[in-house]
Specification:
By secondary structure, the protein is α+β, with helices and mostly antiparallel strands. The chain contains three helices and four strands; from the N terminus they run E-H-E-E-H-H-E. InterPro entries: ABM_dom (IPR007138), Dimeric_a/b-barrel (IPR011008).
Length: about 100
């Protein structure tokens, strides 16, 4: 398994709403087209209305690379910048968990 946790901070409320729309469009494509993407979730942060946290879990690094190569993901990566004040990315190495059926 390969994962990411990403914290995005939007520039303002208008940007946050537009970012959420971009996320919704992209997420629909991810759900429909990426069997190697095990979990792709987006969360608002309580008390911090401009922040979003993405939790992404892929079957392996190859599935992540496939995800990154998709046209709709490339569009997301290009368009998101106009809405963001900052981005923080942590790469995750899966150890154990509930809800994911994997042999490790």
């Amino acid at each position: 398994m390969f994962g990411l946790m990403v914290r995005f901070t939007c520039t303002d409320e208008t940007a946050a709403a537009a970012f959420d729309e971009l996320v919704a469009r992209t997420g629909a494509q991810i759900r429909a087209n990426e069997p190697g993407t095990v979990i792709y979730t987006v969360h608002r942060v309580d008390g911090r209305p401009l922040e979003r946290i993405f939790y992404e879990l892929y079957r392996d690094v190859a599935a992540f690379e496939t995800h990154e190569s998709q046209e709709y993901v490339r569009i997301f990566l290009d368009e998101r910048e106009q809405y963001l004040a900052s981005t923080e990315v942590d790469c995750l190495d899966f150890v154990a968990g509930k809800g994911v059926d994997v042999e490790h």
